Amino acid sequence: MLAHLLIISLGIVGFIESTYIYRNKRKQKVLVCPLHADCETVVHSEFSRFFGIPVELLGAAYYGTVATAFAAAVLAGILPTGPAFLLTAGAFLFSVYLTFIQAFTLRQWCSWCLGSAGLSTGIFVLALWLLSWEGLLVLLSRYELLLETSQLLGLAIGLGGATVSFLLLFRFLRDLVISSFEAEVLRIISQAVWLALAVLTICGVGLYLPAAAALAASAHFLLSLFVLTGLVVSSAFLTLSVVPRLISLATRQARYPGSRNATRLRRSALALGAVSLISWYSLFFLVTLPVLPLSVPGGAAAYLAAAAAAAAFSRVAGQRTST
Fold it and tell me: Which residues belong to any copy of the Vitamin K epoxide reductase domain (predicted)?
């Protein structure tokens, strides 16, 4: 009962905080930002919207849903359902994503945003504690088909988004011009890719835990984990560091200056895009073709070789199209 009440309380606090940010932004009021952080830069950045929806509205909807759902659970005397727990897990990963953006992309901190990340983390930990380890394994086993279906859906979204994103990026960088519309398209696609990565992560963990002993000895699972790690790293650098800096550079001028910095960013974008694309296709084949006879060393070496070849090819192709 105490954990339920704590979750409800955290949900109410989060709802109040999210609506406070939204109301101040609408009225164009400056946020009071404790700890000498730069809240204004963060809450008005291009990352303050997800698929065109203000992040604070998504937060208000999440916290309101959590508070209502767990209050209903208390009144009915039942445990939270599987979808409610998965919702808290998704919100936790989203808060990690937003915190990463503050740290490595914007390089500015928002006290309210960090507080919201702490609230979502607290709700997730409490929801996990409520289920207990045994209850979590039972829950994941019950939703195995849903997790497998969601995993395939995440793969389809990520693979399609990564393919379109790389083709668009290659086209945009070929003439060294990125319009505001093209920049917005890239942002939306990158958000779709990150959503797919979150789905894959949640589903992967959900499928792994009930069958940990068997999967830990599976070459396909270990290779999938290895490729997923490479995918997350390359996507993080591409979408949260390199591309935003290119867009910022492009929107300030009609064309990129012929500086070493611009050239380095352009090459990095193409190389990381190629590695990300190879990673998505590798992960797709590993998940959909589990009968392929693979060893961990051989599969890892083949993936690294393919990623290196893709990065080298993208650099050569980029040089030819820019001349």
Answer: 2-131
